[in-house]
Amino acid sequence: MADPNAVLADIGVFKREQMNHVEVAEKVVLPDREQVESEKREASLRQEIESSSDRQLKHVEVQERCRLPDA
Question: What Gene Ontology terms describe where this protein resides (cellular component) (predicted)?
Fold first, then answer.
């Protein structure tokens, strides 16, 4: 950490004329139409999945099969 007294001393002798003016360019990137539509489709699909009930699902028996390689 810098010494607070040294920092204040440097601020006191700083010459504002030494600074250069800078133009600030703000970049705002908006999404494409395809991206917006894709996000809407994804949101509606998620909502549909979350709102679906378990009654629509069927019970399935799991059959495990273990095939051994030939000798």
Answer: cytoskeleton; cytosol
User: pTM for the full model?
Assistant: 0.40
Both tokens assigned to 5: 């007294």
Domain ranges within the chain, ordered by starting residue: 4-56
**Cα(37)–Cα(34) distance, rounded to whole angstroms?**
5
Token pair in block for residue 68: 């051994």
Tell me the residue length of the chain: 71
Residue type at 7 in one-letter notation: V
CA–centroid distance for 15 within its chain: 42
Q: Is the pLDDT of residue 10 over 90?
A: no
- Which residues lie closer than 8 Å to 19 by C-beta, 6 or more apart? none
